[in-house]
Amino acid sequence: MSEDPTRSGGTPHDSGVEPKGSAVEPKGSPGQVEPREPSFGARAAESGRRAVTAVAIAAGLIAAVLLGWFLFGEWWISVVRQRVDGSAFSGFAFGLTVGFIATVLAAILVRFILVRRMPGFLRVVLGVLLAVPLAPLVFSLRIAMNKSSGKPGSLEYQMLVDGRGYQSGVFFGTLVALLIVVAVVWWGISRRKARAEDRAHVSDTQH
To answer: Rounded CA gap, 90 and 46, in Å?
Structure first.
């Protein structure tokens, strides 16, 4: 007669037989949960969000071109003329301010448009509002592209004569704002990566 291993001080594992109801460790590292693929509804919602975001930004760009290239000129030249008053320094300072503020406001609006929980209609509204800060930049782009062919009395000629220094100021203001925006975005991405690595490290140490 064979001896019961449990009576001789052994354990059920000593007999080479796995006891019923014992848990089997899943493959992979302990405590690791296999990521689940998103459902069809989640994928459809994400695709719809991206489509609405693209439409909102495209609507803002189209409205900015229509406003800044075709409808903005006469009124904006009168504003620049009053602020510059024949001074190249005043023109540069005003252009620097306009370029910087317009670029920063456009970047802020784009950031809000990209918020995941933003309702679709608000994305479109913000996209249309994006045309407001972009309009003076589009108009300055028009002046820069057509300044060589500007005839006396044209918008390009009036801006170059009455708004001396303004175009250069817009260029430098936009450039400085873009550098700041890129630095902020890079810092935000680096910070999120560092937080994710810290959470992963804490999760590994707990397991």
So the answer is: 48
Question: How far is the C-alpha of 163 from the C-alpha of 139, rounded, in Å?
Answer: 13
**Count of beta carbons in the 10 Å neighbourhood of residue 33:** 7
Phi, psi of 25, rounded to the nearest 5 degrees? -65, 130
Are 84 and 90 within 8 A, CB to CB?
yes
63-80 mean pLDDT: 86
Query: What's residue 42's pLDDT?
Result: 65
Phi then psi for residue 58, to 5 deg, are -65, -40
Structure tokens at 117: 């929980």
User: Is the pTM higher than 0.85?
Assistant: no
What digits encode the pLDDT tens for the residues 97-151?
999 999 999 999 998 888 877 787 888 899 889 999 999 999 988 888 877 665 6
Q: Residue 131 to residues 25, 40, 43, 146: CA-CA distances in angstroms? A: 58, 35, 30, 21
Q: Is 133:98 a contact under the CB 8 Å cutoff?
A: no
Place of tokens 């203001």: 173
Single-letter residue type at 141: L
Nearest C-alpha neighbor of 65 from the set 119, 20, 131: 131
